[in-house]
Design a protein that fits this description.
Layout: H1 2-26, H2 56-60, H3 75-94, H4 98-120, H5 125-145, H6 155-180, H7 187-235, H8 247-271
Bound molecules: zinc ion.
Length: 273
C-alpha cells in the first residue's frame, strides 16, 4: 500500500501545479484565479473536468484543444509534473508534517515566480504577499507543533530576514540605477526577497543574493549575451544587452539557500578559519 500513498502525494502536488498554471496565466493580466472556469482562449469553450486532469489530459489530447485544435503549451504538463515531484520529494525528505508542507509550498511559489518573471518580466503580488505571510506566520505556528524549525528560520530571524532581504534589494537597485542610469530592480524583486528572507533568516538571505548574482552572471555570460550578440550581428543591428529579470535567478537561489545554505555558510566560515 505504500507505493499508492506516494502516488497520491504526487497527484496532490500535480493538482496544485495545475492551479499554479492558472496563477501564472492570469495574475500578470490581473484576472481572478477563481472565476471564470478555465476555457480555451480561441474557441472559448469551457474545459471539461476530464480534459483538465494533470499531465494525463495533455497527453490524451495530444497537446491540442479537443474542440478547435489550438495547441496547448508543454508548460502545463511540465509544471504539473515538477510540482508533483516537488511535493513528493519534500514530504518524503522532511516528513509528512508541517515542515514537509512548508518546503513544498516554498518550492511551488518560487517556481511560479521564476516562470512569471521569465515570461512577463513581472512578479505578481499574489505570489509574494501569500509567500511572505505564509513565511511569517508558519514559524509562530511551528513554536507550538515542532521541536526544530529547520530548514526554516524561527520567528525572530524570519522578521529580521525579511527586512534584510527587502533592504538588500533596495540597496542593489539604488546602486545599479546610479551606475546604469535605469531601473535595475523592481518592486517585485523586493517583495520576493522579503518572502525569501522570512523563510531563511538574515545569513542565508545574503547568501541567496550571492547565489542569484552568480547564476545570473553564468546565464548571461554563457547564454543570453553570446546569443544576443550573434543575432544582432546577423541582423546587422547594434547589440543591446537584454533586460535582466532578476527574479528568475533569485527564486531558485532562495530554494538553494533554504536547502543547502547552512552547509554553504559553515563551509565558507571554516575556510576563513
Ligand atoms: Zn479551443
Amino acid at each position: 500500500m505504500i507505493p499508492l500513498f506516494y502516488v497520491l502525494t504526487f497527484l496532490v502536488g500535480a493538482s496544485i501545479g495545475s492551479f499554479l498554471n492558472v496563477c501564472i496565466a492570469r495574475w500578470p493580466a490581473e484576472l481572478s484565479v477563481v472565476r471564470p472556469r478555465s476555457r480555451c482562449p480561441r474557441c472559448e469553450r469551457p474545459i471539461a473536468w476530464y480534459d483538465n486532469i494533470p499531465i494525463a489530459s495533455w497527453l490524451v489530447l495530444r497537446a491540442k484543444c479537443r474542440h478547435c485544435g489550438l495547441p496547448i503549451s508543454a508548460q502545463y504538463p511540465l509544471v504539473e509534473a515538477v510540482v508533483g515531484a516537488a511535493w513528493l520529494w519534500s514530504l518524503w525528505e522532511f516528513g509528512y508534517g508541517l515542515n514537509g508542507v512548508r518546503v513544498a509550498v516554498a518550492a511551488t511559489v518560487l517556481l511560479g515566480i521564476a516562470i512569471t518573471d521569465a515570461k512577463h518580466y513581472l512578479i505578481p503580488d499574489g505570489f509574494t504577499v501569500f509567500g511572505f505571510l505564509f513565511a511569517l506566520v508558519m514559524p509562530v505556528v511551528g513554536l507550538f507543533v515542532l521541536d526544530d524549525p529547520w530548514p526554516f528560520a524561527g520567528p525572530w530571524d524570519a522578521l529580521i530576514g525579511a527586512c534584510v532581504g527587502a533592504g538588500l534589494i533596495r540597496i542593489i537597485g539604488w546602486l545599479g540605477e546610479a551606475a546604469l542610469g535605469k531601473e535595475a530592480m523592481g518592486q517585485g524583486d523586493e517583495t520576493l526577497m522579503a518572502f525569501v528572507g522570512a523563510m531563511v533568516g538574515p545569513g542565508r538571505t545574503l547568501l541567496t543574493t550571492f547565489f542569484a548574482a552568480f547564476l545570473a552572471v553564468l546565464a548571461f555570460g554563457l547564454l543570453v549575451a553570446p546569443v544576443g550578440w550573434l543575432r544582432s550581428r546577423r541582423a546587422g543591428t547594434a547589440f543591446e544587452l537584454p533586460h535582466v529579470p532578476f527574479g528568475v535567478f533569485l527564486a531558485p537561489a532562495g530554494m538553494l539557500a533554504l536547502l543547502f545554505g547552512d552547509q554553504a555558510l559553515a563551509w565558507y566560515l571554516s575556510t576563513l578559519g
